[in-house]
Amino acid sequence: TLHRLIQDMVQYQHPIGYEDIAVLIETFRNLLHFDAYTNFATKFQYLNPAETVLNSLPEEVENNQIAYLSNNLGTIYDEFAEYKKAVEYLEKALHIRQNQKDENEIATTQ
C-alpha cells in the first residue's frame, strides 16, 4: 500500500505530479503533526518516507499541503538537532507561503 507506492516511485523513477500523491502528502502531514505534548521520537519512523514523497515532486509544485508538510519536517528535524535539514525544510515552507502571499501562514511558519 503506502510502502509499495513509495517503493514503486523510487524503483521505477516514475515522474509524478501532485495529483498522483496528494493523499500521501496529506497522510504524512497528519502523521507528522505535533503540538506541545508531542513525543517527537514517535515521529522519527515517518521522516524518510515523507522526505521521499516530498522530494519526488517537481520543484515548481507548491501548495499549502506541501508547505505544512515541509514545516512539520523542519520542526521535527530541529527537535532532533539536525539543523541543516531543519533550515532546508523551513525555508521551503516559507518560500511557498511567501509565493502564496498568505501573511497569516508566513507568520506561523516556524
Brief overview:
The protein is mainly α and 110 residues long.
Describe the structure.
The chain has about 110 residues and is mostly helical. The protein is built from six helices and no strands. It has helices spanning about 1-10, 20-30, 45-55, 65-80, 85-100, 105-110. It starts with a helix and ends with a helix.
Count helical runs: 6
Integer-rounded radius of gyration: 14 Å
Work out the strand percent: under 5%
| Number of strand elements | 0
The coarse silhouette is globular
What is the N-to-C succession of helices and strands?
A: HHHHHH
Structural class of the helices, strands and pairings?
mainly alpha
Q: How would you characterize the largest beta sheet?
A: none
Query: Can you tell me the residue ranges where pLDDT is under 50 for at least 5 consecutive residues?
Result: none
**End-to-end C-alpha gap:** 32 Å
The amount of helix comes to 55-70%
Mean pLDDT: 79
Strand and helix map with partners:
Blueprint: H1 2-12, H2 18-31, H3 44-55, H4 64-79, H5 83-99, H6 103-108
List keywords for this structure.
110 residues, mainly alpha, 69% helix
